[in-house]
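[Q] Does anyone have a clean structure-token version of this?
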Amino acid sequence: MRQLEKLIIITTISIALGFGFLHLLIPDIMFDRLHIFLFNLCAGGSLILFYTSNQKIFSVWTWVFYGIALCFAMSAFFEYYMISILCALSLSICVERIRIQQFSLFPWGFFKQTEPVWQKFHQASLLCLSLGLCFSILAMINQAYCPFFDSPKFQLNTFFLGFSFPLSLITFSLMFRLMPHHEISWLHWAKEAIFWAINGGVIIFFVFILLGSYQGEFLISMLLLIAIISTLIIQLIYAAPGQQKWVFVSGLCFLLATALTGLLYIIDYFFPHLIHEKLTLELHTIFSLYGWNLSGLIMICRFNDFPLHLKTKYFVLMHWIVIAVLSPFAYHYSLIALITWLSFIAFLWIVLFTNNELTSSHGGL
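[A] Here you go.
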């Protein structure tokens, strides 16, 4: 990836995190939509298309997606829903055009045993992105113009969280792609089971959210937790040694923390006041976006560059300090928010712009 695209990604993600802390300065305005849309849709969606195009630079369609996604984020934040609907429709068409070119109109590959699991996750990521955009259109119509589904959950504030899922799927795709392919039979079936558990589980989970079934949400959360733990075990045992393995192990630990905080949040419905609800939700968002999903975005940006001229343990430790230690306090204290934001930018800059070992050995940075 060129430096231009890296600068765009760093700027977008850093601004997204900044909006996550901006309520400390402007408490009367909720910046969650800008915070999440900039990360998940603008940066994340664009990198998914970049990875799919298999080029070293953003394609024309990727730039188009990025520009329209910015317009969508701004119009949704200011509640100009008609503009948001048109933007979401254009983005969905853009994603589907690329998905169909790369795969097929109907996702037949999901049902083929010969299709590698990483390719299934890849196509699922694109399909989830386009479907998420379509559902956001329905949610905006239901919320602002013509109510047709009577559920307090069927609104944009529910579905914008769904844009995190395509990033999660593309991260799984990268992880399984980098695993050795000479595998025993049971491992193949384990990967297939993980694919269907994660994709089917999340779809059913959203149905239970719309229906307000907390028992259903709890059961599906347990299924997803088992799938995550299984993936972590497979990654630890079978992944090829190297930096990429430990980046993904770190990311899966963030995902495990995401799943556990999500479970705690659901348990609070059955046992009120057992946990600090707001803190739990904040941790859930931080671990998901800036822990697990960010690991995937970094891998896309540096996919062909490994090994980097970095000590893996220092990279992983810095990621955990910024996200798991500083960020939870940054949501409540302005000074820590500033320190966290600057540390986050420094972390991204180091990871995205550090040369690989071959370049460094010939006089690089």
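[Q] Thanks! Anything notable?
[A] The CA atoms of residues 140 and 229 lie 36 Å apart.
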